[in-house]
Predict the structure.
Amino acid sequence: MMQFMQLNFEPIADLPDWLVILLFGVPFVSGITLYIYKTRHARSWRKGIFPQTLKPTEDNYLEAYLALGAKLILINYRESKEKIQFINQYFNRYFTKANYNFGDSLLFSLKYPIRTQTITDWMKMHLRDEGSRSQIIYFLTGLALINGTLNSSELAFLKQINQDLDLEPDNLTKIIAIYAAYNKHKEETTKKRNPKESKTYAYDILGVQKDASMEEIKKAYRKLVKIHHPDNFATGTESQQKMAAEKFIEIQNAYESLIG
């Protein structure tokens, strides 16, 4: 017949109190500490604060973009479906290496809106150049203009973010003009090729008037290249490099169409 071994715990009772506390207390305290450590950022987010201790990783940049995007969605929730699709497509295009759950992150940001100042403060801490900070305005402006128009609340939000990122007011004005020209250019291209409209789009990309001299065009081009040249993002994340490369090509094409 099989005999079962009886476990005897009596020796534990003979252990010193300090050793019993060490054996059972340390794992318990360690578990609690680990839980607090892992959830510390979530607690800050629930209070509307973007944690300033977050490292400048691809995932954290994405979360910052998403938190700002959620604020825009809440301003005009009627367009939430289109805006969510825009954000998802944008992230799939630029944040290919990010490890995140889009649905959960977005719902969290919508439920617990982050104070924009805490996001822009974190971004300024890690994005020292104008080009990187401008990328955020391009993203938000494209999101706000998803249906071709801006309401006063969305415009005020974009102006505030642009200001909080220490960017010139003219920066936002140019970006809005670029999107407006792009949408018009896309419509014209869909109907038929219109060289005149293509040139108008090129002027808007460079931020110059249609009667600008060649010297003014070259000056505007050099200024934009200085900001958006891919070499400036060599140490940045993959998403920053990709956005900069595409913007640089757009600037280059616009310049060549005007001087050709």
The CA atoms of residues 207 and 247 lie 14 Å apart. The longest helix spans residues 17-46. Residues 29-38 have pLDDT under 50 and may be disordered. The radius of gyration is 26 Å.
